């Protein structure tokens, strides 16, 4: 049996931009992606702490060390620049693998700099 487990999380990321006219997705600073073990094209869940919105989308690599967190396309209607969000990546794994798996959790400040 496979179960869905969190593999990585960017906790309290600050939205830097919302681009309604882009095809879709979330653009994330490449360095932050690597630290949270999130891959380009990977499906992620976005939880908006400001308004309670939840959505799923896929990831696009943003400029390294830019701090970019940009919701694109229809998702841009669910956030405002400055909103605090949680970005969660998941993967399917069998129960035995899941028992010992340690997800990568990156806690950010208001400038998307790592604090934990």
TrEMBL record:
Is synthesized initially as an inactive proenzyme, which is activated by self-cleavage at a specific serine bond to produce a beta-subunit with a hydroxyl group at its C-terminus and an alpha-subunit with a pyruvoyl group at its N-terminus. The modification Pyruvic acid (Ser) is found at residue 25. GO terms for molecular function: aspartate 1-decarboxylase activity. InterPro entries: Asp_de-COase-like_dom_sf, Asp_decarbox. GO terms for biological process: alanine biosynthetic process; pantothenate biosynthetic process. It is found in: Cytoplasm. Its cofactor is pyruvate. One of its GO terms (cellular component) is cytosol. Its EC number is 4.1.1.11. Keywords: Autocatalytic cleavage, Cytoplasm, Decarboxylase, Lyase, Pantothenate biosynthesis, Pyruvate, Schiff base, Zymogen. The keyword Lyase applies. The keyword Iron does not apply. Heterooctamer of four alpha and four beta subunits. This is Aspartate 1-decarboxylase. It comes from Vallitalea guaymasensis. The gene is panD.
């Amino acid at each position: 049996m496979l179960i869905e487990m969190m593999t990585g999380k960017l906790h309290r990321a600050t939205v830097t931009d919302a681009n309604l006219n882009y095809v879709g997705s979330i653009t994330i600073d490449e360095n932050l992606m690597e630290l949270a073990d999130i891959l380009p094209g990977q499906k992620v869940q976005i939880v908006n702490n400001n308004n309670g919105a939840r959505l799923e989308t896929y990831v696009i690599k943003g400029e390294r060390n830019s701090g970019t967190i940009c919701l694109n396309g229809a998702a841009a209607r669910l956030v405002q620049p400055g909103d605090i969000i949680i970005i969660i990546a998941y993967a399917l794994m069998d129960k035995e693998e899941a028992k010992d798996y340690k997800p990568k959790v990156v806690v950010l400040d208001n400038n998307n700099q790592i604090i934990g």
